[in-house]
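Researcher: Good morning. I'm working through a list of sequences from a screen, and I'd like to move beyond sequence-only analysis. For each chain I'm collecting a predicted structure so we can compare shapes side by side. This is the next one on the list. No need for commentary yet; just the structure.
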Amino acid sequence: MHLAAPRLCDIASIQYLLEAHADLHALLAHVESLNLPDCWIGAGFVRNTIWDVLHGRAIDASQLSDIDVVYLDPAEANEERDAALERRLQVLKPGLSWQVRNQARMHHRNGDAPYRSTLDAIAHWPETATALAARAIRGRVEVIAPHGIEDLIGLIVRPTPAFAHKLPIYWERIKIKQWAARWPRLTILATPRK
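Model: Good morning. Structure tokens for this chain:
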């Protein structure tokens, strides 16, 4: 589906875009139906959509390489639950790569202190343009961006402050993801914002 490119200048304009696009909004509704605490779709779901729009491309939800569902529930932080939720989402919307991760255990893998919320977990993601997420609450879309959206809409890739001491991981992601080939107007920076 191709929408007229909105003027992406703030979180409200991103929320509007995600609400107006029926396929993206439906994916958010599927995740909402799980009734998980502090639950969002993060990373590429929002980032890739915005970068496609800013590159003048049609939004195609079927081209999402993965859909990262994140939530925080310390009471039940096991991988089996996440796998069961992925299977449930596959039934609701087959053919997409759903990835569900309870952020209550992800700090172990990332070498961070325990996350206090999903927002806190997202703040620790590698790039500022990736550190954002969206959710639907009774049909209305909300977006969180702990580092703001300036880098996202400015087509800037830079490490978050949490990755200032993990730059080899950041550069490896840049290499593997090959974002610059897909979105040639990106500017890739080596250090976090001061």
